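Thread: Newbie trying to understand structure tokens

Hi all, I'm a second-year student working on a class project, and my supervisor (Dr. K.) asked me to get a predicted structure for one chain before our next meeting. I've only ever worked with sequences, so writing a 3D structure as a token string is new to me. If someone could post the tokens and maybe explain what I'm looking at, I'd be very grateful. Here's the chain:
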Amino acid sequence: MAALLALLSSVLWGTADFGGGLSSRRLPVLAVIGWSQASALVGVGLTAAVLTPVGAGQVIVGSPSGLAWLGWSLAAGAFGMGGLLCFYRALAIGTMGVVSPVAGLGVAVPVLAGLAAGERPSVVQLVGMAVALAGALAASGPELSGAARGRAVGLAAVSGAFFGVALLGMARGAASSPLFTLLGMRCTSVAIVGVVAVARRTVGGVRPRDLPMLAGVGLADAGANLMFAVATTLGLVSVVAVLGTLYPVATVVLARGVLGERLLAVQKAGVATAMLGVVVLSLG
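---
Reply by user tm_fold:
Sure, no problem. This is what the structure looks like when written as tokens:
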């Protein structure tokens, strides 16, 4: 079940990235992040309001009264927001094929943390993790060109580190309450965007017709976060983290199917390799 939830989180994260990328072509990055995160907060808040009072879905709600999730959720929200801002800025000045693989290396943070905490994946799982991660990075289509220098790569590296800390924060907070960890994350990210919006006195030029797409992006991201958080309570964080970072595969497939973008040979090989890694992991 943990592997399935982690894979589903990758699909949703990849879908959210695809939608967010399309929206960012027409709207300011901060507006895309802000409105999508606000939509996610509404969705998570309603879910918490429905499930918590009646004690339903305990694996999702967990034990919010202990507040062990609070610090982790605030940290995950802040680092996740920082990661998004750096990631989108890196995409704006660099090349997707360079930025995405570099940012994806942030998975090392939760993987190493899990191993340091005493997790011991089997040899088969370790092989599957390596194969799946290599496939995900290759699916992004690395292009080592002039854009792969300087600030873009630096920002991508910072975003990867931030994303890694956010994933670790989600995993640690989820041990107490997956749902409330996610709720705290969304409150944090929306608060940060709100402060910036007030300072700039703008909502980013978003029109009513833009809201359905942004809401979809936010809800997909929130759903991915929740599935990943629950998955970490059911399986090894080191394994779940790798499966949860296969989202470039979903993004590439959507770009091919919806926009008709051609896949490079390395991307096709990457998708196949990632799927092979998933099969190996399932055997472990």
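A couple of things are worth pointing out once you decode it. The mean pLDDT is 81. The radius of gyration is 18 Å. Feel free to ask follow-ups in this thread.
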